[in-house]
Task: inverse folding
């Protein structure tokens, strides 16, 4: 490495690689997306079969047909259900990403991990509080839409500091959220697609793109 | 036309110094251990390159205590960022002239 002009291509490649590795959170595991999607599907199934009476009636009509106070049980169960789904999904994300970082011999709690988290949490917590306000003001029909839209904004915001796929997952969630606001009877269905199916789809894509390949690499090296 | 090679900075000839500078360009500050891990270097090796960059006023060092542990952080100087940008555009010109 005496003469730098011998290979400017390699130098630029190295610069780009280090800039990306030092500024982006690349330990995020696709498996955490798949796991979060599975949690959401289960949560949606619980909401549909147990809380919303096996889906015999439409999500929104059902809510409207009940007066304010008689829905308070349903509202509390739905809120609990959503909070449990979020809790398990977050635990899964931490577990799989931590495992991913350790496998690659990298630290988990880095500057970029902090940046991802803070940028994710600002819109996410605002949206969560707003969804709770809607729930307890008896505007349940808009909750699915609000959750999807704010979650999408959180992902777009955090996506700048991690894999590019997160940005597109965010845009997808925003579109689904707007649709859920327009087609209000399909709120739960669109919620299930956004939080369940889309997580599994994007998680699988990311796993195949970044992790399967790496696991294979490590095997070869050993 | 002036050869683009004239703008290549001697200090960035080393891939390690180039790496340190790349990381500091996209982070306000980085501490010694983060740099060490990022670049996969030994303490001594990293320290000597950091020293060289510091002496040429490309980076500045600040030492402080976090609790009882000493922590050394590094950041770029205005001059350092300038030299790095010149070096980058020289590299790019070299490629487009190839």
Result:
């Amino acid at each position: 490495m005496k003469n730098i002009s011998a290979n400017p291509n390699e130098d630029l490649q190295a610069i780009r690689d280090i800039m990306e590795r030092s500024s982006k959170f690349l330990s995020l595991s696709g498996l955490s997306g798949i796991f979060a999607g599975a949690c959401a599907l289960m949560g949606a199934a619980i909401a549909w079969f147990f809380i919303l009476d096996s889906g015999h009636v439409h999500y929104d009509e059902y809510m409207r047909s009940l007066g304010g106070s008689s829905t308070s049980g349903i509202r509390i169960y739905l809120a609990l259900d959503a909070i449990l789904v979020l809790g398990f999904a977050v635990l899964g994300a931490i577990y799989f990403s931590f495992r991913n970082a350790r496998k690659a011999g990298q630290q988990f709690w880095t500057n970029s991990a902090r940046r991802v988290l803070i940028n994710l949490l600002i819109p996410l917590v605002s949206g969560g509080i707003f969804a709770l306000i809607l729930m307890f003001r008896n505007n349940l029909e808009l909750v699915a839409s609000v959750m999807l839209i704010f979650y999408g904004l959180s992902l777009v915001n955090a996506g700048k500091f991690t894999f590019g796929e997160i940005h597109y997952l965010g845009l997808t969630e925003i579109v689904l959220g707007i649709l859920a606001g327009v087609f209000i009877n399909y709120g739960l269905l669109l919620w299930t697609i956004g939080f369940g199916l889309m997580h599994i789809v994007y998680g699988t894509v990311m796993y195949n793109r970044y992790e399967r390949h790496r696991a294979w690499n490590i095997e070869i090296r050993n | 036309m002036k050869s683009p090679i004239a703008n290549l900075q001697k200090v960035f000839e080393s891939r390690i110094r180039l790496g340190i500078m790349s990381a500091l360009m996209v982070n306000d500050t980085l501490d010694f251990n983060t740099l060490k891990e990022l670049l996969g270097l030994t303490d001594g090796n990293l320290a000597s390159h950091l020293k060289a960059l510091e002496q040429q006023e490309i980076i500045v060092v600040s030492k402080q205590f976090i609790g009882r542990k000493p922590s050394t952080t590094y950041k770029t100087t205005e001059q350092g960022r300038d030299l790095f940008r010149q070096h980058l555009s020289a590299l790019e010109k070299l490629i487009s002239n190839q």
